Amino acid sequence: MILLKPNPSSGVPIYLQLMEQVRHAIETGALRPGEQLPSIRPLAEELVVNPNTIAKAYRELEHEGVIELRQGAGAFVSDKAPTKKDADKLRAAQTTVASAIEKLRERGVTDEEIRRLVEAELAGVNRTGGKRGE
Amino acid sequence: MASNRAVIETAGLWKRYDDVEALRGLDLQVPSGSIFGFLGKNGAGKTTTMKVLLGMSRPTRGDAHVFGHSSAESNSSVEIRRRCAFVSDEKDLYDYMTVGEIVAFTRSFYPRWRGDLEQQYLHKFDLQLSRNIKGLSRGTRTKLAMLLALCRGAELLLLDEPTSGLDPAMAEDMLQALVTHVSREGSTVFFSSHQLSEVEQIADHVAIIDQGQAIVAGALDDLRSQYQRIHLVFENDAPEIKVRAPGTHRVRRQGRVVTILSSSRGDAVIEELRGYKPATFEVSPVTLKDIFLESVRTED
């Protein structure tokens, strides 16, 4: 079983715990793009939670683009679901951005000036035909 | 599964017994296909509500409808009882029968009786047909009463404390039976319980009743996201804090620490509290137990 029994007394709504478990399973590779998630009813019985709660978690994950709900067929991990690689990449990028901002602030550049600089830089890259999507 | 149609609907329901007002304007909406947790302290009016819904007790004022039928009219209340299964707090059973006899006896009244479920639950609940009901433990009585309710093919289960007397493993099996019943049979479950973690586990809707009124009601996830706990730590003794933002705010002040349970989610409360300039500031989610205790606390 990929999903574990949620903790009803943690204060975190059960559907959010289930969403986090699915995202985690995808990040660790326990669930891969295209693979099917357990169907709602058997999973509700297995985890002893309300089937509506599982349906809600699946709907929200679909809304986030993590899974796809196919009529009558069930829930599948989206091909576009963020994988561990994506998560690592973003985390590393965030560190780079944070340290750059820290250095600029030390030099007395204001937050508003930093924002303008970043936006100008992104716009400039686009104009000069750098490899930035639209 | 869930639709917007309400299976149970009450409006301004009052019930007076002699000089006791058991219900004082109860408003309830129980959506079809939901597992609805009905919470309250002892004597809050939970059992009275169930009896009024089933037409076993007439309201003094106000309306109660089940499946769109009025509970107060005798013809329609017969129809309601035909489509409902009720398990009372006392787990009423005929003490002079054996398990096998009461199952056969009950089966004879219900054309939609589910023989498949009967076999399944006799096994799962470990009930022996030859046992005398008189000698059963409290937990076994609960299991037997629940079996009789689950097998009737009812569209609505009204359950007063469906896990009372059960050990944790058996209680989990009972919750699983309820979840299965809702997911496979599409029934609605309306149950009272003092086990808030059980309610939190399987319910999608809850109401908290206090002194005959529903003081908190709604989808459990909505309620939980509406409430928050805010924890402030100050450098020195904490100042006196009065929250002006709307909603209820229970403020506890102890030395340098202030804890606030707030029913109004959002930035207004947080901005207001930041104004007191605490050294640390934390916002954390709450449990159903927090909401329950906050709602039914006696005003001092």
The number of distinct helices of chain A, counting runs of at least 4 residues, comes to 5
Identify the strand order in the major beta sheet of chain A. 1-2
Shape of chain A: elongated
Mean pLDDT of chain A: 85
Q: Count up the helices of chain B.
A: 10
The helix-strand sequence of chain B is EEEHEEHEHHHEHEHEEHEEEHEH
Strand proportion of chain A, as a percent range, falls in 5-15%
Distance between the termini of chain B: 43 Å
CATH architecture of the largest domain in chain B: 3-Layer(aba) Sandwich
Q: List how many beta strands of chain A DSSP finds.
A: 2
By CATH reckoning, the class of the largest domain in chain B would read Alpha Beta
Q: What's the main sheet of chain A like?
A: 2 strands, antiparallel
Uncertain stretches of chain B: none
Number of strands of chain B: 14
> What percent of residues of chain A adopt helix (DSSP H or I)?
55-70%
**Biggest interchain interface, per-side counts:** A-B, 20 and 30 residues
CATH fold annotation of the largest domain in chain B: Rossmann fold
| Overall number of structural domains of chain B | 2
Main beta-sheet strand count, sense and barrel state of chain B: 6 strands, mixed
**How would you classify the helix and strand content of chain A by structural class?**
mainly alpha
Mind explaining what this structure looks like?
Chain A has 134 residues and is mostly helical. Helices cover 56% and strands 6% of the residues of chain A. A two-stranded antiparallel sheet of chain A has the order 1-2. With 300 residues, chain B is α/β, with parallel strands linked by helices. Chain B has 2 domains: 6-220, P-loop containing nucleotide triphosphate hydrolases (Rossmann fold), CATH 3.40.50.300; 227-296, Alpha-Beta Plaits (2-Layer Sandwich). Chain B contains 10 helices and 14 strands. Chain B has helices at 46-53, 74-83, 99-107, 115-124, 138-150, 168-185, 196-202, 220-226, 267-274, 288-296; strands at residues 6-17, 20-31, 35-39, 61-66, 69-70, 84-87, 156-160, 188-192, 205-210, 213-219, 228-233, 249-254, 257-262, 280-284. In chain B, the strands form 3 sheets. In chain B, strands 6-7-8-3-9-10 form a 6-stranded mixed β-sheet, sandwiched between helices. In chain B, α4 packs antiparallel against α5. Chain A binds chain B through residues 8-15, 40-41, 44-45, 48-53, 55-56, and chain B through 1-2, 33-35, 172, 175-176, 179-180, 182-184, 197-198, 200-204, 220-221, 224-225, 284-287, 289-290.
